[in-house]
Specification:
Layout: E1 4-12, E2 15-25, E3 32-40, H1 44-49
Antiparallel strand pairs: 1-2, 2-3
């Protein structure tokens, strides 16, 4: 099961950003890698669905 982490960061220009870290399993090797993404806070759920 993939682990998901969300950290809320400071506001920039009135928009609050969150750093989303997802563990993604490689189909070739089976190893997990981590993908980090900065998204506006209201779009966190959409980023996790991808």
């Amino acid at each position: 099961m993939a682990k998901k982490v969300v950290a809320t960061l400071k506001k920039e220009g009135g928009v609050t950003y969150a750093k989303v870290i997802k563990a993604v399993k490689s189909e070739k090797t089976g190893a997990y890698t981590f993908r980090e993404e900065m998204v506006p806070t209201p779009m966190v759920q959409d980023a996790l669905k991808k």
